[in-house]
Specification:
mainly beta, 4 helices, 5-stranded antiparallel beta sheet, single chain, disordered N terminus, Neuraminidase, Immunoglobulin-like, 5-stranded mixed beta sheet
Length: 560
Protein backbone atom coordinates (compact mmCIF):
# COMPACT_ATOMS: atom_id res chain seq x y z
CA UNK A 1 0.00 0.00 0.00
CA UNK A 2 2.73 2.47 0.96
CA UNK A 3 4.65 1.62 -2.20
CA UNK A 4 1.61 2.20 -4.41
CA UNK A 5 0.85 5.47 -2.67
CA UNK A 6 4.39 6.72 -3.14
CA UNK A 7 4.48 5.70 -6.79
CA UNK A 8 1.27 7.57 -7.50
CA UNK A 9 2.47 10.62 -5.60
CA UNK A 10 5.79 10.65 -7.41
CA UNK A 11 4.07 10.38 -10.77
CA UNK A 12 1.75 13.27 -10.05
CA UNK A 13 4.47 15.49 -8.68
CA UNK A 14 6.69 14.73 -11.65
CA UNK A 15 4.04 15.64 -14.19
CA UNK A 16 3.24 18.83 -12.31
CA UNK A 17 6.93 19.84 -12.21
CA UNK A 18 6.69 20.24 -8.47
CA UNK A 19 9.45 17.92 -7.44
CA UNK A 20 10.74 18.35 -3.90
CA UNK A 21 14.03 16.83 -2.77
CA UNK A 22 12.10 14.06 -1.00
CA UNK A 23 10.17 13.29 -4.19
CA UNK A 24 13.39 13.05 -6.15
CA UNK A 25 14.72 10.58 -3.62
CA UNK A 26 11.60 8.44 -3.99
CA UNK A 27 11.84 8.53 -7.78
CA UNK A 28 15.36 7.19 -7.56
CA UNK A 29 14.07 4.32 -5.43
CA UNK A 30 11.16 3.34 -7.65
CA UNK A 31 12.09 2.71 -11.26
CA UNK A 32 8.73 2.07 -12.90
CA UNK A 33 5.15 3.25 -12.85
CA UNK A 34 2.16 0.93 -12.75
CA UNK A 35 -0.49 1.01 -15.44
CA UNK A 36 -3.01 2.34 -12.94
CA UNK A 37 -0.68 5.21 -12.20
CA UNK A 38 -0.46 6.15 -15.87
CA UNK A 39 -4.24 6.19 -16.08
CA UNK A 40 -4.32 8.52 -13.12
CA UNK A 41 -1.86 10.84 -14.86
CA UNK A 42 -3.95 10.91 -18.03
CA UNK A 43 -6.96 11.91 -15.98
CA UNK A 44 -5.07 14.59 -14.09
CA UNK A 45 -3.78 16.17 -17.29
CA UNK A 46 -7.35 16.98 -18.27
CA UNK A 47 -8.24 18.70 -15.01
CA UNK A 48 -7.81 22.30 -14.02
CA UNK A 49 -4.79 23.53 -12.08
CA UNK A 50 -6.94 23.84 -8.98
CA UNK A 51 -8.11 20.24 -9.11
CA UNK A 52 -4.55 19.03 -9.81
CA UNK A 53 -3.40 20.82 -6.69
CA UNK A 54 -6.21 19.23 -4.67
CA UNK A 55 -5.21 15.74 -5.79
CA UNK A 56 -1.59 16.37 -4.88
CA UNK A 57 -2.50 17.62 -1.41
CA UNK A 58 -4.71 14.59 -0.80
CA UNK A 59 -2.03 12.16 -1.94
CA UNK A 60 0.62 13.88 0.15
CA UNK A 61 -1.60 13.66 3.21
CA UNK A 62 -2.36 9.98 2.63
CA UNK A 63 1.26 9.06 2.13
CA UNK A 64 2.45 11.16 5.05
CA UNK A 65 0.27 9.10 7.35
CA UNK A 66 2.02 5.96 6.16
CA UNK A 67 5.63 7.17 5.96
CA UNK A 68 6.48 7.26 9.70
CA UNK A 69 6.22 3.47 9.81
CA UNK A 70 9.07 3.14 7.27
CA UNK A 71 12.59 3.22 8.77
CA UNK A 72 14.80 5.77 7.01
CA UNK A 73 17.76 4.45 5.01
CA UNK A 74 20.84 6.64 5.11
CA UNK A 75 24.56 6.31 5.47
CA UNK A 76 27.43 8.57 6.36
CA UNK A 77 31.18 8.78 6.72
CA UNK A 78 33.01 9.47 9.96
CA UNK A 79 36.61 9.23 11.17
CA UNK A 80 37.67 6.33 13.36
CA UNK A 81 39.99 6.98 16.35
CA UNK A 82 43.66 7.60 15.59
CA UNK A 83 45.97 4.57 15.77
CA UNK A 84 49.70 4.37 16.35
CA UNK A 85 50.95 2.48 13.31
CA UNK A 86 54.69 1.90 13.56
CA UNK A 87 57.65 0.27 15.23
CA UNK A 88 58.44 2.64 18.10
CA UNK A 89 62.16 1.83 18.20
CA UNK A 90 63.24 4.39 15.60
CA UNK A 91 62.34 7.65 13.91
CA UNK A 92 59.99 7.38 10.90
CA UNK A 93 60.43 10.13 8.32
CA UNK A 94 58.22 11.34 5.46
CA UNK A 95 55.47 8.69 5.42
CA UNK A 96 53.34 8.00 2.35
CA UNK A 97 50.12 5.95 2.47
CA UNK A 98 48.07 3.84 0.06
CA UNK A 99 44.91 1.85 0.77
CA UNK A 100 43.20 -1.22 -0.68
CA UNK A 101 40.25 -3.28 0.59
CA UNK A 102 40.19 -1.35 3.88
CA UNK A 103 43.86 -2.07 4.54
CA UNK A 104 46.53 0.61 4.77
CA UNK A 105 50.08 0.47 3.46
CA UNK A 106 52.70 2.99 4.61
CA UNK A 107 56.30 3.61 3.58
CA UNK A 108 58.61 5.57 5.86
CA UNK A 109 62.31 6.36 5.84
CA UNK A 110 64.87 5.80 8.61
CA UNK A 111 68.13 7.73 8.74
CA UNK A 112 71.04 5.46 9.63
CA UNK A 113 73.22 7.80 11.64
CA UNK A 114 75.72 9.56 9.42
CA UNK A 115 75.40 7.03 6.60
CA UNK A 116 74.70 8.53 3.18
CA UNK A 117 72.05 5.85 2.61
CA UNK A 118 68.73 5.57 4.42
CA UNK A 119 66.50 2.53 4.90
CA UNK A 120 62.87 2.18 3.79
CA UNK A 121 60.33 0.50 6.06
CA UNK A 122 56.89 -0.87 5.23
CA UNK A 123 54.01 -0.80 7.72
CA UNK A 124 50.58 -2.35 7.18
CA UNK A 125 47.47 -3.42 9.08
CA UNK A 126 46.73 -6.13 6.51
CA UNK A 127 46.82 -8.86 9.17
CA UNK A 128 44.45 -7.01 11.51
CA UNK A 129 47.26 -5.42 13.51
CA UNK A 130 50.04 -3.04 12.58
CA UNK A 131 53.29 -4.66 11.49
CA UNK A 132 56.49 -2.89 10.39
CA UNK A 133 59.23 -4.55 8.35
CA UNK A 134 62.35 -3.52 6.51
CA UNK A 135 61.66 -3.14 2.80
CA UNK A 136 65.12 -2.12 1.63
CA UNK A 137 68.48 -0.95 2.94
CA UNK A 138 68.94 0.77 -0.43
CA UNK A 139 66.91 3.78 0.65
CA UNK A 140 66.93 7.34 -0.67
CA UNK A 141 69.88 9.64 -0.18
CA UNK A 142 70.40 11.02 3.32
CA UNK A 143 70.42 14.58 2.01
CA UNK A 144 68.20 17.58 2.47
CA UNK A 145 64.97 17.02 0.49
CA UNK A 146 66.25 13.64 -0.67
CA UNK A 147 64.87 11.17 1.87
CA UNK A 148 61.47 10.71 0.23
CA UNK A 149 59.60 7.79 -1.32
CA UNK A 150 56.33 7.49 -3.23
CA UNK A 151 53.74 4.72 -2.96
CA UNK A 152 50.75 3.73 -5.09
CA UNK A 153 48.29 0.83 -5.27
CA UNK A 154 46.52 -0.37 -8.40
CA UNK A 155 42.87 -0.46 -7.26
CA UNK A 156 42.02 -3.11 -9.84
CA UNK A 157 44.50 -5.66 -8.47
CA UNK A 158 45.91 -4.50 -5.13
CA UNK A 159 49.44 -4.48 -6.54
CA UNK A 160 51.70 -1.99 -4.76
CA UNK A 161 54.30 0.18 -6.47
CA UNK A 162 57.04 2.03 -4.58
CA UNK A 163 59.65 4.35 -6.03
CA UNK A 164 62.64 6.36 -4.83
CA UNK A 165 66.05 7.53 -6.00
CA UNK A 166 68.99 5.61 -4.52
CA UNK A 167 72.73 5.23 -4.94
CA UNK A 168 73.20 2.39 -7.41
CA UNK A 169 77.01 2.55 -7.48
CA UNK A 170 79.71 4.98 -6.36
CA UNK A 171 79.34 6.79 -9.69
CA UNK A 172 75.64 6.47 -10.51
CA UNK A 173 72.17 6.83 -9.03
CA UNK A 174 69.09 4.91 -9.99
CA UNK A 175 65.37 5.62 -9.86
CA UNK A 176 64.11 2.24 -8.75
CA UNK A 177 60.61 0.74 -8.63
CA UNK A 178 59.71 -1.95 -6.10
CA UNK A 179 56.48 -3.95 -6.40
CA UNK A 180 54.38 -6.20 -4.19
CA UNK A 181 51.48 -8.45 -5.12
CA UNK A 182 48.61 -8.64 -2.57
CA UNK A 183 49.79 -10.52 0.50
CA UNK A 184 53.19 -11.19 -1.05
CA UNK A 185 56.75 -10.01 -0.69
CA UNK A 186 58.39 -6.93 -2.15
CA UNK A 187 60.57 -7.38 -5.23
CA UNK A 188 62.91 -4.89 -6.90
CA UNK A 189 64.34 -2.60 -7.78
CA UNK A 190 63.54 -2.24 -11.45
CA UNK A 191 65.50 0.80 -12.55
CA UNK A 192 63.54 3.19 -14.77
CA UNK A 193 66.43 5.64 -14.93
CA UNK A 194 70.15 5.54 -14.23
CA UNK A 195 72.24 8.71 -14.19
CA UNK A 196 75.16 10.33 -12.47
CA UNK A 197 72.97 12.20 -9.99
CA UNK A 198 69.26 11.73 -9.23
CA UNK A 199 68.48 13.39 -5.93
CA UNK A 200 64.94 14.71 -6.49
CA UNK A 201 61.73 13.22 -5.11
CA UNK A 202 60.10 10.85 -7.65
CA UNK A 203 56.36 10.14 -7.80
CA UNK A 204 54.33 7.11 -8.89
CA UNK A 205 50.65 6.28 -9.59
CA UNK A 206 48.97 3.07 -10.75
CA UNK A 207 45.65 1.80 -12.06
CA UNK A 208 44.14 -0.60 -14.56
CA UNK A 209 47.32 -2.65 -14.79
CA UNK A 210 49.39 0.39 -15.76
CA UNK A 211 51.64 2.75 -13.85
CA UNK A 212 53.29 6.14 -14.38
CA UNK A 213 56.36 7.55 -12.66
CA UNK A 214 57.89 11.02 -12.74
CA UNK A 215 61.24 12.39 -11.60
CA UNK A 216 63.76 15.11 -12.49
CA UNK A 217 66.91 14.59 -14.52
CA UNK A 218 69.19 16.66 -16.74
CA UNK A 219 70.46 13.66 -18.67
CA UNK A 220 67.49 12.90 -20.92
CA UNK A 221 67.20 15.30 -23.86
CA UNK A 222 63.80 16.55 -24.91
CA UNK A 223 62.28 17.95 -28.07
CA UNK A 224 64.12 21.22 -27.40
CA UNK A 225 67.78 21.55 -26.50
CA UNK A 226 68.02 23.12 -23.05
CA UNK A 227 71.08 21.21 -21.87
CA UNK A 228 73.11 24.37 -21.34
CA UNK A 229 70.36 26.49 -19.79
CA UNK A 230 68.58 24.12 -17.41
CA UNK A 231 69.90 21.70 -14.82
CA UNK A 232 66.78 19.58 -14.44
CA UNK A 233 63.66 18.70 -16.46
CA UNK A 234 60.59 16.65 -15.60
CA UNK A 235 60.82 13.10 -16.92
CA UNK A 236 57.92 10.63 -17.18
CA UNK A 237 57.98 6.87 -17.70
CA UNK A 238 55.03 4.51 -18.08
CA UNK A 239 54.44 0.81 -17.40
CA UNK A 240 52.08 -1.14 -19.69
CA UNK A 241 51.88 -4.31 -17.63
CA UNK A 242 55.00 -5.81 -19.16
CA UNK A 243 57.80 -3.25 -19.24
CA UNK A 244 58.67 0.35 -18.50
CA UNK A 245 59.01 2.89 -21.29
CA UNK A 246 62.12 5.05 -21.79
CA UNK A 247 61.99 8.43 -20.00
CA UNK A 248 60.24 11.26 -21.79
CA UNK A 249 61.28 14.86 -21.15
CA UNK A 250 58.13 16.97 -20.65
CA UNK A 251 59.58 20.40 -19.93
CA UNK A 252 62.52 20.95 -22.28
CA UNK A 253 60.48 23.28 -24.51
CA UNK A 254 59.36 25.62 -21.73
CA UNK A 255 60.81 28.87 -23.05
CA UNK A 256 61.10 30.81 -19.78
CA UNK A 257 64.85 31.35 -19.56
CA UNK A 258 64.62 32.25 -15.87
CA UNK A 259 63.78 28.63 -15.01
CA UNK A 260 67.01 26.88 -14.22
CA UNK A 261 65.39 23.69 -12.93
CA UNK A 262 62.02 22.03 -12.47
CA UNK A 263 61.63 20.15 -9.21
CA UNK A 264 59.56 17.58 -7.32
CA UNK A 265 57.03 16.43 -9.94
CA UNK A 266 53.89 14.91 -8.42
CA UNK A 267 51.47 12.62 -10.24
CA UNK A 268 47.77 11.87 -9.88
CA UNK A 269 45.58 9.33 -11.69
CA UNK A 270 41.80 9.48 -12.01
CA UNK A 271 39.36 6.56 -12.14
CA UNK A 272 39.54 6.49 -15.94
CA UNK A 273 43.31 6.01 -15.97
CA UNK A 274 44.14 9.60 -16.98
CA UNK A 275 47.41 10.87 -15.43
CA UNK A 276 48.01 14.46 -14.32
CA UNK A 277 51.26 16.07 -13.18
CA UNK A 278 52.26 19.14 -11.18
CA UNK A 279 55.82 20.39 -10.77
CA UNK A 280 57.41 23.56 -9.45
CA UNK A 281 59.82 26.15 -10.81
CA UNK A 282 60.77 29.54 -9.40
CA UNK A 283 58.08 29.37 -6.73
CA UNK A 284 55.19 28.61 -9.07
CA UNK A 285 53.40 25.48 -10.27
CA UNK A 286 53.32 23.98 -13.75
CA UNK A 287 50.76 21.44 -14.95
CA UNK A 288 50.65 18.66 -17.56
CA UNK A 289 47.86 16.21 -18.33
CA UNK A 290 47.47 13.11 -20.45
CA UNK A 291 43.75 13.05 -21.12
CA UNK A 292 43.85 11.76 -24.69
CA UNK A 293 46.86 9.43 -24.75
CA UNK A 294 49.59 12.03 -25.05
CA UNK A 295 51.01 14.58 -22.66
CA UNK A 296 50.01 18.22 -23.04
CA UNK A 297 52.49 21.05 -23.18
CA UNK A 298 53.37 22.29 -19.67
CA UNK A 299 51.27 25.24 -18.52
CA UNK A 300 52.02 27.59 -15.65
CA UNK A 301 49.01 27.58 -13.30
CA UNK A 302 50.14 29.89 -10.48
CA UNK A 303 51.74 33.31 -10.79
CA UNK A 304 53.64 34.92 -7.95
CA UNK A 305 52.65 32.21 -5.47
CA UNK A 306 56.13 32.17 -3.90
CA UNK A 307 55.71 28.52 -2.94
CA UNK A 308 58.48 27.83 -0.41
CA UNK A 309 61.33 25.46 -0.97
CA UNK A 310 61.70 25.01 2.77
CA UNK A 311 60.66 26.56 6.06
CA UNK A 312 63.37 26.62 8.66
CA UNK A 313 65.82 23.77 8.23
CA UNK A 314 63.58 20.72 7.94
CA UNK A 315 60.03 21.63 6.92
CA UNK A 316 59.20 20.54 3.38
CA UNK A 317 56.49 19.40 0.92
CA UNK A 318 54.48 22.46 -0.04
CA UNK A 319 52.12 21.22 -2.73
CA UNK A 320 50.24 18.16 -3.94
CA UNK A 321 47.92 16.99 -6.72
CA UNK A 322 44.87 14.70 -6.85
CA UNK A 323 42.43 13.72 -9.60
CA UNK A 324 38.95 12.25 -9.90
CA UNK A 325 36.53 11.83 -12.80
CA UNK A 326 38.29 14.18 -15.17
CA UNK A 327 39.03 16.86 -12.59
CA UNK A 328 42.45 17.75 -11.20
CA UNK A 329 42.94 19.35 -7.78
CA UNK A 330 46.14 21.11 -6.79
CA UNK A 331 46.78 22.35 -3.27
CA UNK A 332 49.79 24.45 -2.35
CA UNK A 333 51.26 26.79 0.25
CA UNK A 334 51.25 30.37 -0.93
CA UNK A 335 53.73 32.62 0.80
CA UNK A 336 52.76 36.28 1.07
CA UNK A 337 55.65 38.52 2.05
CA UNK A 338 58.15 36.89 4.36
CA UNK A 339 56.00 35.37 7.08
CA UNK A 340 52.45 34.60 5.95
CA UNK A 341 51.60 31.13 4.68
CA UNK A 342 48.20 30.17 3.25
CA UNK A 343 47.10 26.74 2.03
CA UNK A 344 45.06 27.13 -1.15
CA UNK A 345 43.24 24.80 -3.52
CA UNK A 346 42.64 25.07 -7.28
CA UNK A 347 40.41 22.92 -9.47
CA UNK A 348 40.67 22.07 -13.17
CA UNK A 349 37.83 20.31 -15.00
CA UNK A 350 38.78 18.46 -18.16
CA UNK A 351 38.68 20.89 -21.07
CA UNK A 352 38.16 23.94 -18.84
CA UNK A 353 40.40 26.53 -17.28
CA UNK A 354 41.68 26.48 -13.72
CA UNK A 355 39.50 27.88 -10.96
CA UNK A 356 40.57 30.77 -8.81
CA UNK A 357 42.38 29.64 -5.64
CA UNK A 358 40.11 28.80 -2.70
CA UNK A 359 41.44 29.10 0.83
CA UNK A 360 41.82 25.89 2.81
CA UNK A 361 43.69 27.15 5.87
CA UNK A 362 41.88 29.74 8.00
CA UNK A 363 43.37 33.20 8.56
CA UNK A 364 46.49 32.90 10.71
CA UNK A 365 47.41 36.13 12.48
CA UNK A 366 50.65 34.57 13.71
CA UNK A 367 51.90 33.81 10.20
CA UNK A 368 52.86 30.26 11.12
CA UNK A 369 54.30 28.18 8.26
CA UNK A 370 52.31 25.39 6.68
CA UNK A 371 54.09 22.36 5.23
CA UNK A 372 53.82 18.59 4.78
CA UNK A 373 50.96 19.14 2.31
CA UNK A 374 48.89 16.33 0.78
CA UNK A 375 45.63 16.17 -1.16
CA UNK A 376 43.13 13.48 -2.20
CA UNK A 377 39.86 13.62 -4.14
CA UNK A 378 36.83 11.55 -5.07
CA UNK A 379 33.90 12.77 -7.20
CA UNK A 380 34.08 16.39 -6.07
CA UNK A 381 34.90 15.64 -2.43
CA UNK A 382 38.42 16.69 -1.49
CA UNK A 383 40.72 16.13 1.46
CA UNK A 384 43.68 18.40 2.21
CA UNK A 385 46.20 17.81 4.99
CA UNK A 386 49.14 19.83 6.21
CA UNK A 387 51.11 20.69 9.33
CA UNK A 388 50.88 24.10 10.98
CA UNK A 389 54.25 25.10 12.40
CA UNK A 390 54.62 26.00 16.06
CA UNK A 391 55.92 29.00 17.97
CA UNK A 392 59.54 28.64 16.94
CA UNK A 393 58.64 29.15 13.28
CA UNK A 394 55.89 31.77 13.55
CA UNK A 395 56.22 35.51 13.07
CA UNK A 396 54.94 35.97 16.63
CA UNK A 397 54.12 33.66 19.52
CA UNK A 398 51.16 31.47 18.57
CA UNK A 399 50.73 29.92 22.00
CA UNK A 400 51.04 26.46 20.42
CA UNK A 401 53.86 24.20 21.56
CA UNK A 402 53.99 21.74 18.68
CA UNK A 403 53.64 21.30 14.94
CA UNK A 404 49.96 20.41 14.65
CA UNK A 405 48.63 18.20 11.81
CA UNK A 406 45.46 19.44 10.13
CA UNK A 407 42.95 17.78 7.79
CA UNK A 408 40.09 19.48 5.95
CA UNK A 409 37.46 17.65 3.87
CA UNK A 410 34.57 18.77 1.69
CA UNK A 411 33.96 20.59 -1.55
CA UNK A 412 36.46 23.27 -2.61
CA UNK A 413 35.59 26.47 -0.79
CA UNK A 414 33.39 24.58 1.68
CA UNK A 415 35.80 22.43 3.63
CA UNK A 416 35.40 21.38 7.26
CA UNK A 417 38.13 20.69 9.81
CA UNK A 418 38.73 17.17 11.10
CA UNK A 419 39.96 17.11 14.69
CA UNK A 420 41.76 14.77 17.14
CA UNK A 421 44.45 13.62 14.76
CA UNK A 422 47.59 12.77 16.71
CA UNK A 423 47.29 13.27 20.45
CA UNK A 424 47.11 16.30 22.70
CA UNK A 425 50.59 17.76 22.19
CA UNK A 426 52.02 16.43 18.94
CA UNK A 427 55.11 17.66 17.15
CA UNK A 428 54.56 16.52 13.57
CA UNK A 429 56.59 16.93 10.40
CA UNK A 430 54.76 15.34 7.46
CA UNK A 431 51.32 14.17 6.33
CA UNK A 432 49.97 11.91 3.60
CA UNK A 433 46.44 11.20 2.34
CA UNK A 434 45.02 8.36 0.25
CA UNK A 435 41.54 7.22 -0.63
CA UNK A 436 39.60 4.09 -1.46
CA UNK A 437 36.54 5.38 -3.22
CA UNK A 438 35.00 8.06 -1.03
CA UNK A 439 36.77 6.90 2.12
CA UNK A 440 39.88 8.89 2.99
CA UNK A 441 42.95 7.70 4.90
CA UNK A 442 45.45 9.90 6.71
CA UNK A 443 48.91 9.33 8.15
CA UNK A 444 51.32 11.65 9.92
CA UNK A 445 54.62 11.25 11.72
CA UNK A 446 54.94 12.92 15.12
CA UNK A 447 57.19 13.15 18.12
CA UNK A 448 55.52 12.97 21.51
CA UNK A 449 56.83 14.62 24.71
CA UNK A 450 58.14 11.27 25.96
CA UNK A 451 59.77 10.32 22.66
CA UNK A 452 61.47 13.34 21.10
CA UNK A 453 63.33 12.45 17.88
CA UNK A 454 61.42 9.17 17.76
CA UNK A 455 58.73 10.18 15.27
CA UNK A 456 55.96 7.61 15.15
CA UNK A 457 53.32 6.99 12.51
CA UNK A 458 49.76 7.92 13.40
CA UNK A 459 46.97 6.63 11.16
CA UNK A 460 43.37 7.72 10.91
CA UNK A 461 40.70 6.28 8.60
CA UNK A 462 37.19 7.17 7.56
CA UNK A 463 34.47 4.55 7.97
CA UNK A 464 31.18 4.26 6.09
CA UNK A 465 28.45 3.95 8.70
CA UNK A 466 25.31 2.38 7.22
CA UNK A 467 23.67 0.95 10.35
CA UNK A 468 21.50 2.91 12.73
CA UNK A 469 21.51 2.56 16.53
CA UNK A 470 19.61 -0.17 18.36
CA UNK A 471 17.08 1.44 20.70
CA UNK A 472 15.56 0.19 23.96
CA UNK A 473 12.32 1.63 25.35
CA UNK A 474 10.80 0.92 28.76
CA UNK A 475 7.25 1.81 29.82
CA UNK A 476 5.19 0.31 32.66
CA UNK A 477 2.63 -2.29 31.64
CA UNK A 478 0.03 -0.45 33.76
CA UNK A 479 -0.02 3.14 34.98
CA UNK A 480 -2.46 5.35 36.86
CA UNK A 481 -3.79 8.14 34.66
CA UNK A 482 -2.87 10.79 33.75
CA UNK A 483 0.90 10.06 34.12
CA UNK A 484 2.91 7.39 32.31
CA UNK A 485 6.66 7.31 32.87
CA UNK A 486 9.07 6.22 30.12
CA UNK A 487 12.81 5.92 29.81
CA UNK A 488 15.03 4.76 26.97
CA UNK A 489 18.53 4.25 25.66
CA UNK A 490 20.34 3.14 22.51
CA UNK A 491 23.66 1.77 21.40
CA UNK A 492 25.36 2.24 18.03
CA UNK A 493 26.93 -0.96 16.65
CA UNK A 494 30.73 -0.62 16.55
CA UNK A 495 32.46 0.78 14.70
CA UNK A 496 29.86 3.46 14.68
CA UNK A 497 29.56 7.21 14.78
CA UNK A 498 27.61 7.19 18.04
CA UNK A 499 24.03 7.94 19.10
CA UNK A 500 22.93 11.49 18.37
CA UNK A 501 19.13 11.91 18.65
CA UNK A 502 15.98 10.07 19.63
CA UNK A 503 12.47 10.28 18.21
CA UNK A 504 9.45 9.29 20.31
CA UNK A 505 5.86 8.77 19.14
CA UNK A 506 2.55 7.72 20.71
CA UNK A 507 -0.79 6.37 19.63
CA UNK A 508 -4.04 5.82 21.51
CA UNK A 509 -5.39 2.34 20.84
CA UNK A 510 -5.31 1.72 17.10
CA UNK A 511 -5.24 5.40 16.18
CA UNK A 512 -2.68 7.41 14.28
CA UNK A 513 0.83 7.98 15.50
CA UNK A 514 1.67 11.38 16.99
CA UNK A 515 5.16 12.70 17.67
CA UNK A 516 6.04 13.51 21.27
CA UNK A 517 9.73 14.23 20.70
CA UNK A 518 10.96 14.83 17.14
CA UNK A 519 14.70 15.14 17.82
CA UNK A 520 15.77 14.94 21.42
CA UNK A 521 18.80 14.11 23.52
CA UNK A 522 16.59 13.32 26.50
CA UNK A 523 16.35 9.77 27.79
CA UNK A 524 13.15 9.94 29.81
CA UNK A 525 9.67 11.44 29.71
CA UNK A 526 6.49 11.54 31.76
CA UNK A 527 3.40 11.55 29.53
CA UNK A 528 0.68 13.43 31.45
CA UNK A 529 -2.37 13.17 29.20
CA UNK A 530 -3.37 9.52 29.70
CA UNK A 531 -7.02 8.72 30.24
CA UNK A 532 -8.32 5.79 32.30
CA UNK A 533 -9.29 2.75 30.24
CA UNK A 534 -7.10 3.68 27.28
CA UNK A 535 -4.17 1.65 26.02
CA UNK A 536 -1.21 3.69 24.80
CA UNK A 537 1.57 2.42 22.59
CA UNK A 538 4.87 4.28 22.47
CA UNK A 539 7.56 3.78 19.90
CA UNK A 540 11.14 5.02 19.80
CA UNK A 541 13.99 5.10 17.33
CA UNK A 542 17.51 6.56 17.49
CA UNK A 543 19.66 8.36 14.94
CA UNK A 544 23.45 8.30 14.83
CA UNK A 545 25.85 11.13 14.01
CA UNK A 546 25.88 10.26 10.32
CA UNK A 547 22.05 10.44 10.08
CA UNK A 548 21.31 6.70 10.09
CA UNK A 549 17.98 5.94 11.77
CA UNK A 550 17.62 2.66 13.62
CA UNK A 551 14.48 0.53 13.72
CA UNK A 552 11.44 1.45 15.80
CA UNK A 553 10.97 -0.31 19.13
CA UNK A 554 7.63 -0.29 20.99
CA UNK A 555 6.23 -0.52 24.48
CA UNK A 556 2.58 -0.36 25.59
CA UNK A 557 0.87 0.85 28.77
CA UNK A 558 -2.70 0.28 29.99
CA UNK A 559 -3.95 3.37 31.83
CA UNK A 560 -6.40 2.96 34.73
Amino acid sequence: MRRHCLIKLESVLFMLLALSSDSLAYIRDFKSLEASTMKTLALLRSRTARRRTTVVVVLVALCAALLPAVASRASGVFWLPTQEASDASFDHLNPVVATYHNHAYILSVRVNGTSATTSVFFSTNESGRWDTQLLSNQGPHNTYSGEFTSLAVDPTSGKLYAIWAYQKSPDADGVGVWTREPGGQWTGPTDVMTAGSLGEQPSIVAGGGKAYAAFVSSEVPGACDDATSRSGDVQVVSYDGGSWSPPRNLTSCVSDSSILEFSNPKLALDENGRPYLASSANGDLWFDENASGSWSDPAQITHGAAIPVSAGTALRTFYGIAASNGAAYVTYVRQSGTSTYDVQLMTHQLGASWSSPAHVSPPDSYGCPKFGVSVVANSGRVGVSYVRGHTGYCASSSGVSGNAPVVYTGAPGQMALVGSLAGATPDCFATSLANEGNLFRFVTTCDQPASVDQGQLYYKAEFLDTVGPVAHLVASARAKAPAIGLHWSARDPQPGSGVDYYQLQIRDGGGAWHTLQALTHAKQLIYRQARPGHRYTFRLRARDRTANWGAWVMSSTQAY
